[in-house]
Structures
1.
Amino acid sequence: MAYAYLFKYIIIGDTGVGKSCLLLQFTDKRFQPVHDLTIGVEFGARMITIDGKQIKLQIWDTAGQESFRSITRSYYRGAAGALLVYDITRRDTFNHLTTWLEDARQHSNSNMVIMLIGNKSDLESRREVKKDEGEAFAREHGLIFMETSAKTASNVEEAFINTAREIYEKIQEGVFDINNEANGIKIGPQHAATNASHSGGHGGQQAGGGCC
Amino acid sequence: EGALGQGTAPWAVSSAMFFTRGNASRGLHLGYSALCNQVWVTLANHYLQSISIDWEHFYLHEQRNLTEDVLGMQIDKDLRQSRSDLYGGSDVPQFHNALKRLLLAYAHWNGRICYCQGFIIPAAVILMVMERDEGDALKVLVYLLDKVLPANYFANNLSALTVDVAIFHDLLKIKLPELSQHLDRLCTAARKGSDERCRLPVTSVTTMQWFLTLFTSCFPKETILRVWDAILFEGSEVLLRVALALWTQLGEWIKKCQSLEELSQWLSQEMMETKLMDCSELMQAVYSMATFPFPQVVELREKYRLLPFQAKVAASSCHLKETQCKRKGSNDRDGGCPRAQNPQDCRDTARNEKRKGNCNMTKIVQATVGDNVLQHQSLYSTEQMATHPATLKQQYSKLTKRQQQNQCLTPRHGSNDSSSPGTPLRFKKSKVINRFLGGKKLKNSSKSNRVHHTPSPRVHHTPSPRVHQTPSPRTPQSTQKEQKNKITVPWCSQKRVPRKGLTRNLKVRSGCSDTVGLLEDQNDGGKTENVKVDDPIHIVMEESRKSSQLPREIETNYNEPLAIQLYEKEVDNLAGVGHLFKTLQIGEANDSLMAAESSNKPGVYVCSVELRKDQFRAKNFTAHSDMKTNLMNNIPLVHLSGKSFGTQNLALHGSCSNIQISPFNK
């Protein structure tokens, strides 16, 4: 399927915070209460539309266990966006955010858009981390913040799409070098053709080339 | 059937029978599991015997100390999320409990690897095959993780696993060039990026998944059993073989994919649901694709072994070891003493050692991608080479002084028959040896102190007083006490096994540790850098398989950094180490100069043993060569927290007392 851009995402966070469930909810629109453990790395993809443009999100879902940290690190750099997930019902997952963030900042390109996600917002009764705290953390570190529930699908779409929008805006601003794939952005293979054939072609300001 | 019975192990007969039977009774796999049960346990027992572990003691007594803790909760949680219940039969909760105990027991046994989500399913498979006999299951799990898989496969940032993935990537290029090219074409765009590190080939992602789960993620039960049989028999190279067979199979479909995205999608979704391959076909492919050991794998492992990470020479790659042995062995024989070595050789090898030392994950990842690795290394190595000899010199002179202060040593006479079977271990000697530890200051004592006070709960379980034997300053008296205590440790390697192989082993070990110490020392950061040396246990196990035992020992013992120091030093000092080498059967005892020197300096040998040990400490050797080495030395060390690596230094004391010093007779 033709797309204007491909954005590469990475989902990180402690084990058991719901990374894979978020991905499943986003890609398949379903919730699996007992999701298989992620061993190593898995990936999913979905097409979204921003500004009338087809954007493909290629999402790399990583294992949260410490042992796999070295493997996941190697995926940071190729990502345009990162979803940093914690579990609002487990304080320790929130406490580990700093480590994750350091890791991500250290191994990613500097423009990577990071979205902080407090997952499991449906479990209000078991909440251990206040929404304010998440917001404060995000503000402090310059992240976008959102509370989601992979179970009820609340805010899941938004989380992924807002991140994509941020990236898209950065592209428009020229912050991202879209021809450098190390940024996790790729111009769609048929982008030029799409633009030409579509009657309401959305601005041909993107440089061509760079596709496979 | 021609592909069967490749194993040259003592159990080759049963192996051949095994596979034949498996092939013949396709579909009749009812009895297969039972066969696996017996054979796997036999293999595991063989291994445990070879490392002279008082298993019963560990299993019966140590297990009691297991408590519910954070790890237990984590395992509980993971078990619920895993598909382990597939192997649990009817009563899943009980199975999960058993599985949890098994995983905890392993974590307790090997604190360095501890627990990784990757081996839940493997453990479940083992438990199933062992018909829930947790004791046997633990043995097999220990055998699999400690012995069969390369060291650091599941530890030290999964470095060995990452290396294997990189090796596989290369192997694919060699064995399936067409497919590899097709994949490369798909990845071309991805490779345009300026930063190579982010380009983990999609094949590697999939292969890594297979390796991490030991193929439990992509095969049905019966295939898993067959594959594992092969792994347990033939060694870890089977992992690569199976992966290659799978990619060969997948190749047909992959060639239809026109873009990387399509491929990714296909790999992630379709593949896991498709029945990948007929079990017997797969095994046929695995056994017929190459001779054992797989020549290219051997080569590639050699190649990566020289890269900054310590690629692990798999249990199966004896060929590799042999090649090295021959090379180094001949060097040794030519000169009879390290000094006679070409200095350039020494430096070159030292540089290689340096490279190994520069182990950090970034580079490993680069290597996984397979780009520009060598350039990076050469940069690093030249930088550090500048200081290397100087540092060594300095330390050596310090140590020499200490040697001179300690001339009241046991005189040396007698022959080199240190390997004579049945010679008892002489702990009294260690008293002398440990004199050298008196007043020894560490360069980085803070490190050892930290180790000393490690608040690891596991330390308390440890029945051995060795926990306190950090290489910190000590008085000879306290050392003696500790030595005594050591002997009373009920279940560690103090068991006196008069087996020829084992006694050799003990000697081999000190040689290993030495190199490791120097390597580790060069690692940046206090991270958990573990370096694997050729497993001495494996050497013992291989004795029956290979007649050329001696060259391998030479290989294991040979110590380049030491050789460099020797090169820089005077003859009399050389003599001492020369004796050590001789005693350890490294060099030939035909150097008349050395012989003459030795008669004048009777105690030098002991000095040199100590010298080697001192070096570790002086250089802040955060050490431990390998789990397996430690196991042999001192089991309780295993229980130390994975983070307190310094404590494993203590193993040196163990080896100190365990080394055979038979040439010394009062």
2.
Amino acid sequence: MSIRFNVNNEERTLDVDPDTPLLWVLRDELRLTGTKFGCGVAQCGACTVHVNGMPRRACVTPVSSLEGANVTTIEGLEGPQADAVREAWAEYDTPQCGYCQSGQIMSAASLLARNPNPSDEDIDKALAGNICRCATYVRIRKAVKAAGEKLGG
Amino acid sequence: MTIIDAPAPSRRAFLTGAGSLVIAVALPVKSRGQSGEERIFGSGESSPVKYAPNAFVRISPDNTVTILIKHIEFGQGPFTGLATLVADEMDADWSQIRAEHAPANAELYGNIMFGGMQGTGGSTAMAASFDVMRKAGAAAKAMLIAAAAEEWGVPAGEITVSKGVISHAGSGNSGSFGDFAEAAAAQEAPAEPTLKTPDQWIYIGKDVPKLDTGAKSTGAAQFTLDIYREGMLTAVIAHPVKFGASVASFDDKAAREIAGVVDVKKISSGVAIYARNTFAALKARKALEVEWDESGAETRSTNDITQERLDATKNRGAIAGEKGAVDDSSFANTENAIEAEYVFPYLVHAPMEPLDAVVERKEDGGVEVWMGSQIPSMDLGVLSETLGLDPSQITLNTVLAGGSFGRRAQSDAHFAREAAEVFMAAGGETPVKLMWTREDDIQGGYYRPLIVHRMRGAVNDAGDITAWEHVIAGQSFVANTPFEGMLQGGVDATMVEGASVIPYDLPNFNTSVHIINNPVTTLWWRSVGHTHTGYAVETFIDELLEKAGKDPVEGRLALMTDPKHQRLANVLERVSAMAGGVTAPEGRARGVAAVESFRSFVAEIAEVSMENGVPRVHKVWCAVDCGIPVNPEIIKAQMEGGIGYGLSAILFNELTLNDGGAVMQSNFHDYRSLRISEMPDVEVEIIASNAPPTGVGEPGTPPIGPAVANAVRRLSGATPRILPMIKSLQA
């Protein structure tokens, strides 16, 4: 089956098994490897991307559901929220192993786009779907707040 | 200590290419132990390796300085930490510093605390590298200066180096490291480079931006799973769900019909499916039908295994530590005695990136492997055996790994073996990526062992603890591995560390252990024995002190009479000062614990309330003494992470087997991880120290469990002694 959608502002037409999760299309077909596999069942958030601007778990999103959609991955994440998050991530040296961080940043940028002045509770709620086994959570919380401040929230 | 210019020409070419400088340093091996390994490697005299040459610094004409890191980076910080040591001695500018993994070569990159074996573990990276890396940096700087002196025709002693710029004030000459990379490579390495005194340090003890943060914030950081080779197949394996089971037969008809599936092969650990893409491989695994031979399998439940071990603890085991006299009469006055049974379940490490490897045939007939190799010496040995190649024909690349927590430190190199078998079973010519899914990870064994403890303690009317008996039972994962030396006289050092010696001076003390093995595979898990001994010792002393009417902090301090426990006493005092004591606001309670592990000293106070029968940890204060704090922010981050990792386990985690022996959990929905909403605020202070640096990857973990448990006891009246806590509290 042929499917057409946009990935990081580039139109892509792919001929793949329609059941294929977006995660494996991004990685195996498009070599966008910043989006990670962690669980395959939407429990860990390592595969978080944006679909039409909203966070989505790529591991349980069949590519057939994305006809005409706009997908943004960590490689294509840009704009004021992305800049502020990455700057804050550097300020707090947030990542440890780094494997979950693409997903954390995708969720954080999405939160800040909706709410530039999040409380700890807002942050906990928005990022509770993103597991970090290194437990960088203390720094994630501080960095998201700092990013919000940079955005003038 | 001798320093020689060691690399052979081929090695130099491999490491650098033309125009680069490699500094090689050879150091006498002085083996020290972590997590019991000193028993096998002993002191320097008995070490199998007398000299372990190391090559660490590469300066390129483009003025970047790349530090070769002999320890795997999976979040604990060796890229930045070890590079800090070199950059400081070189007087490099931090912006020119890069880091990459050193190749597998124990001769150059052996761990002096692992008897020369190349590997990471026991929180040894900094301790084992502090002198070596600084000497490498100092030697590199001396060679750059010598090259500049020759070029400018001025005395080397008049040349200064600052922030990566080499200058001679008298002649007005200056140049970059890159300008002199080639000329410096031709210089002789100094036999005894002069190291800076601590007051001259520019990066050590201060914070530098971590070298890997940028790439880990853009998706650019490359992990093993991200490696794609031309024509590569992706393989997944159908593994048995019972330990000790093997493949009896399989039907792959339906699996082979799935588009993209290329092959199905039996290997020793299961049935491998090869496909052109990951989804096809996963789909085919579901369609595969396998009959398992369970004749040699563990078919008991974890309840049965637990009971067997608890029964064993009713008798004393092999003695691990003793003082004075302890027998039943010591606890005869039951009014003044406490007896406790503790159950510590199997725990999965569950690093974010499940195990994976890429294997490819090289043009010269050798094989190249990419994986998060934590003990390259072990992995290389097993790859060599399985591939039928000499180690020199194998290129083993260590890749950034998405966590480990012990999972990648495989004493049997089982994953390297599986990857090599998968590659060979497919013909040994096509590149193959082997990936485990989360289900493979959760159900694949190599767990923190299921361990039980029985403790008895007695307090007299004066409030003194008069007797302490501690019996531990569980399985040993060092038997039949190169680490077997940790097992002596029936005592596995990794099972009793933290219990065979405790910081409290008690007149009568006895700790013993029963080793009862079974087919469930086990392994070290972040802080190893201290995961359970720290919990048992620190909750039990807290209860005895309460019975004795003593304050938990003052009571502990009064028992830390031996000067060797002074640093632990210091962190305990510090954490108490940070938190303002152990009195909590209404509705909450505080608990304290202090544990020495891996030669670092950590005390924590947790403030806890109960919400729907589950402890909620609001705040943790943590004081750490790890010697000279090379990278303070990394130390703090490791304490924060170690606390979160430990909290996840003690609150929620257990891996159980049902009646029949099948693993009952499969993914993060039923083996849940701590989430950000459950993470307490953490405040860390580091004790100023001039002592040699020690590790921080593990030591943050042991105190959090008992600190929370001691708080829970004050709230609920009982110590949760069956872990995870949700099991005790909701039972």
